[in-house]
Structures are given as structure tokens and as C-alpha cells.
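Session log. Operator J.P. requested a structure for one protein chain; no other inputs attached. Running the standard single-chain path with C-alpha cell output.
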Amino acid sequence: MLRAASARTETSSLRARVSVPGFLLAFAAAAVLVAGALSYVASSHPDGLDATTQRGCTTVEVDSVEELRGECIAQNAAEHRLADSPLADYAIGGDEAWVGLAGVLGVAVAFAVLFTVVRAIGRRSSTADDVVAGSDPGPR
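Structure written below.
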């Protein structure tokens, strides 16, 4: 019984020391560090899904353009409509020297979208709580 009470006290004090904004700031810093620094050591060779879809084909360079020869799933692939966008292929403008900055920008955009969604859910939740409590929040 004493151990359980001690464990609860330790958990409560740990929660009091770790604030949500502090945690989010540390998490964002770690994400930026990983995206910015580790992007340069990531492999640029196809693996996983790319390698699986290219089984049965060989890559041949024809007129400075790579073509797939043989029979594989990747032959049916088409360019994505955003393939010419500024951050396509994890680089800025196709320049692989900027891959770290592209990673950092990607993290920033992901956090902005997450922040917007969480705020929208929070507002909807507080509005629903007001209606359930019987108070009319009025027009917004």
C-alpha cells in the first residue's frame, strides 16, 4: 500500500515538473534537429516500397533519362502533380544541398497543421461543453 502511494506521489510530482509547453518545445527542437541534421546522412538510394515496386525491372539510362526495362509495378507509376513543387523530393528546388532546410520546413508545416487542428478541436469541444451545460455561447 505504501509503495502504491509513493508511486502516485512520484508520478504527480513528475507531471508537475513537465509542462505541456515545455514538452512541446523540447519535442519540436528534437524534430527540427532530426530533420535538419540527419537528412544529410539519409540514403538517397531506393529502399522499401521503391525497391519492391522495381523488382523485375532494370534501370537503363537513355538520352540522360533513366528508364525502367522489364516487368514491374513501377512502370505504371506516374509523376505526382506536385512533383515540380519547391519542396519535392525532400530538397529545395531540386538542389540536394538544401535537404536539411527542406526537412526543417517540413517539420514547421506539420507542426502548424497540427496546431491548427488541435485548436479547432479545442474550440469545438468548448462550444459543445457550453451547450451541454445549458448556456448559449451566442453567435461567433
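Operator note: The two ends are 51 Å apart (CA to CA).
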